[in-house]
Structure formats: structure tokens, C-alpha cells
Write a structure and sequence with these properties.
CATH architecture of the largest domain: Up-down Bundle
Helix content: over 70%
Largest sheet: none
Number of helices: 18
Distance between the termini: 43 Å
Subcellular location: Cell membrane
Strand content: under 5%
Order of helices and strands: HHHHHHHHHHHHHHHHHH
Radius of gyration: 22 Å
CATH topology of the largest domain: Growth Hormone, Chain: A
Pfam families: MFS_1 (PF07690)
Shape: globular
Number of strands: 0
Main location: membrane
CATH class of the largest domain: Mainly Alpha
GO molecular function: transmembrane transporter activity
GO cellular component, one term: plasma membrane
Structural class: mainly alpha
CATH superfamily of the largest domain: MFS general substrate transporter like domains
């Protein structure tokens, strides 16, 4: 019997995946983002206890992205070999161990090493989940799954502050500093969730005990048809060297680099800026750092709703970059409360620019190089997460203030906004494609 992709069995199988598997990987991503950025809440503690200054902190925070970039491709290859259940849970358990080990940081060198190892451990998780979706869902369903998954990435910025701030309040319990408690408990929780996920995550449709045979047949047939369409669209293998020489790809790499540069700088340095508000606790710092991200997520989803209906994204990438630059610049003026308000504008601007960027990038690249080009843009652009925090930390170390670094980030964002005008649209009609990655 031929099973339509719209058959009751197919729809039922998709619903079960969204109900059983998707919440699990979203929860894993929330923890992933929290463990990646929680170091921003302990900068002052590391300086007081270990003598790790602003420049060393910025470099260490950014070294994560070096390890991540180097090992992302090998990790993806191993995921395909071992399957999602084994490899995604291995990634989570490993990064949890590294986060917990960060509690035993003794000096600048161990801080650098552990941040680099965290990037190595996390490498492949985000693209691995995107790949996992291709084994479970045809393209018609993956867009919705990816949007929900990315929502977990965005919401992580909101919960990281209050949770990390609350754990820092445990300072002195059993004679252990609060920052050590934060790393130990958050890392330990990641290990626990990774172990539990190993019992529930299912790599292949055929292995799902909670699907009937008819549902397995219907969903497998839909995925296989989608894979056949994608295979027929691969007309040639694209060399990375050819991509690096492609002006359009280089332009998009630069734009994403500029977004990552400032976006991750705000992420890592926001807690230290908020901490300048007089007489507030670590928990209050954590609560206040969530405010810019709440504003950013509201703005991002509003813009996504609008641009999906109008199809006009390029102007909004430029507008988002300018708004982000303005917010970053204003954060250098006035009181810490004013800086917090300004960074609400900055975070919203950069999140909006990022949400409009990937659809624009897909539409501007030739179909023959789209998949490889997007992978290269994501890989090189994420290195902005290394450069940005490093520069801001160095400037603060030299001047005693983050203002100079924030000025530089504002200038870069304005320059990027102008270069958006150079992005040209592809004139050929778009075919079915996998969802693009996003800032994570």
C-alpha cells in the first residue's frame, strides 16, 4: 500500500516526534547554552580569588570558540557513524564534566585550557541536532522543528542569569566559594541529564518503540523521498577553497562575524556591566541580565513574523545592526541602569539582525554552493565569539573600562550595516533546502 505523506499514520508519527523527542533536545540545548555562557557571571570572582584579569578573562571566554571550530566537523562525522543517541549524549556528558572541572581552576593557564576543552566537548551538538532532524522529518516539517529548537537557544539567555545568580548565593556553604558551586552543580546537572537522555533519545525511526509499524512505514517513506530530492539537487561537490574565493560568501562571512563579535561580547560582559549597579546581590545581577534577552526575543519573533509575510529581510539586517550599534554605544554613557536599558536595545538589534540574516543568506547564494557556503559562513563567522570578548577584555585591562571596546564594536556593526547593501539576491527560484543554522 502506498502511504501518502499526509496519511493519518504519517501525521500521527510526526506529532509523536514533536511530543517525545523535540522537548528533550530543546532542554539539552538550553543547558548547552547556559554552560557555554555562565562564565560571564563569575568574572569578578575569578579576578578576586585567582587574579584572572579582564584581558585573560576575555581571551579565556573566547577560546571556547577556537576549540569548537576546530572539532565541529570531526564531531559531525562521528555522529553519523555512532548515531544520535550515543553521540549527542556523549557530547552532553563530556561538556558537563568539563564545566564541573572548571570549579577546580587554579590560574590563568587552567582557565584557558578548560575553556578550550569545553569548546572541544560541545563541538557538533547544535549541527548534530539539525542533522538528527533530517533523519526523522522531511523538509516540510523541519522548519517548524528547527524554529522550536532555536527558541530553546534564545530562552537559555533568560534562565542562565537567575539560575547562575542563585547558585552564586551559595558562597561559603561548606567553605566552598559560590563560583565553584555554580560550575559544580551546573556541570553535574548536565552529566545527569546526558545520562538520562541516553535512555530516551532514539536515533532512527525504526528503533522507536512508541511508533506503530504503520507509523514507522509512513514516516520512513516520507524521509526517504525527501533524501532522494536533496540527493538529486547535489549537482556538484564544492571545494572550500572555491568558496573562500567567492565574493558573496566572503561578504556573508564578514556579516555573520560582525554579529557574533558583538553578540557574544554582550553575552559575556553584560553581567560585569550590571554588577556595577550599587548594592545588588549576585542573584539580582542574574535577574537583571535576563531583561535584555527578554526584549531581544520579543523583538526577534515579532520581526520574524513580519519578514515571513513580506519577504523583505535585507533592510532589516541593516536596521538590526544599526540598532545594535546604537545600543552598544549608548551603554558607555550614563549610569549602570542606563547601560542596562541601552543593552536592551543592543541585544534586540543583534538578535533581529541574526534572525533575518540566515534566510537572506540562503536566498543570496547559488543553489550549487548554498549548503557548503552556509556551513562555511557559520564556521568562520562564529570566530567572532573569540575575537569580540578578547578585544573587550584587553581594552578593559588597559583602560580600566569596557567603554573603548564597546566603541569599537559599535563601529564594526555600523560598517557591517553598510556592507549589507552589497548583498545581492539570487535570481533563480529557490528549491527545497534544509533550514539554515542560526546564531547559537
Amino acid at each position: 500500500m502506498t502511504l501518502s505523506s499526509e496519511s493519518p499514520a504519517y501525521r500521527s508519527a510526526v506529532r509523536k516526534f514533536f511530543r517525545r523527542m523535540l522537548p528533550l533536545v530543546v532542554f539539552m540545548l538550553v543547558i548547552n547554552q547556559m554552560d557555554r555562557t555562565n562564565v560571564g557571571f563569575v568574572q569578578t570572582h575569578l579576578k578576586a580569588d585567582l587574579g584572572i584579569g579582564a584581558a585573560a578573562f576575555g581571551l579565556g571566554a573566547g577560546l571556547f570558540f577556537v576549540g569548537y571550530a576546530i572539532f565541529e566537523v570531526p564531531s559531525n562525522i562521528l555522529l553519523e557513524r555512532f548515531g544520535a543517541r550515543v553521540w549527542l549524549t556523549r557530547i552532553m556528558i563530556t561538556w558537563g564534566v568539563v564545566v564541573a572541572a572548571t570549579a577546580f581552576t587554579t590560574d590563568t593557564t587552567t582557565f584557558y585550557l578548560l575553556r578550550f576543552l569545553l569548546g572541544v566537548a560541545e563541538a557538533g551538538f547544535f549541527p548534530g541536532v539539525i542533522y538528527y532532524f533530517t533523519k526523522w522529518l522531511p523538509n516540510a516539517e523541519r522548519g517548524r522543528a528547527t524554529a522550536i529548537f532555536l527558541g530553546g537557544s534564545a530562552s537559555a539567555y533568560i534562565v542562565t542569569g537567575p539560575i547562575s545568580g542563585a547558585l552564586l548565593e551559595m558562597h561559603g556553604l561548606a567553605g566552598i566559594p559560590g563560583w565553584k558551586w555554580m560550575f559544580l552543580l551546573e556541570g553535574g546537572f548536565s552529566v545527569l541529564v546526558g545520562i538520562v537522555a541516553g535512555f530516551f533519545l532514539v536515533s532512527r525511526v525504526r528503533d522507536a518503540r512508541w511508533l506503530t509499524d504503520e507509523e514507522k512505514d509512513a514516516l520512513t517513506a516520507a524521509v526517504e523521498r525527501d533524501e532522494a530530492v536533496r540527493a538529486s539537487a547535489r549537482t556538484e561537490r564544492v571545494s572550500k577553497w572555491r568558496l573562500v574565493a567567492n565574493p558573496q560568501v566572503l561578504l556573508l562571512c564578514w556579516l555573520f562575524f560582525a554579529m557574533s563579535l558583538t553578540g557574544y561580547s554582550i553575552t559575556f560582559w553584560l553581567p560585569s556591566i550590571v554588577k556595577k549597579i550599587p548594592d545588588i546581590s549576585d542573584f539580582t545581577v542574574g535577574l537583571l541580565t535576563a531583561v535584555p534577552w527578554i526584549c531581544a526575543i520579543a523583538a526577534m519573533y515579532t520581526l520574524a513574523w513580519y519578514t515571513d509575510r513580506t519577504g523583505r529581510r535585507r533592510p532589516w539586517v541593516a536596521v538590526g545592526l544599526v540598532a545594535g550599534a546604537l545600543g552598544t554605544f549608548l551603554a558607555t554613557l550614563g549610569s549602570p541602569w542606563f547601560a542596562l536599558a541601552a543593552l536592551c536595545l543592543g541585544a534586540a538589534g543583534f538578535k533581529c539582525a541574526a534572525s533575518a540574516f540566515w534566510p537572506m543568506a540562503q536566498h543570496s547564494l547559488d543553489l550549487k554552493i548554498a549548503a557548503a557556503g552556509i556551513a562555511l559562513i557559520n564556521s568562520l563567522g562564529n570566530l567572532g565569539g573569540f575575537v569580540g570578548p578578547t578585544v573587550v577584555g584587553y581594552v578593559e585591562e588597559q583602560t580600566g573600562s569596557t567603554a573603548g571596546g564597546l566603541y569599537a564594536l559599535s563601529i564594526v556593526s555600523v560598517l557591517a550595516a553598510f556592507t549589507v547593501l552589497l548583498v545581492r539576491a539570487r535570481h533563480t527560484p529557490a528549491r527545497s533546502a534544509d533550514p539554515a543554522p542560526a546564531v547559537h
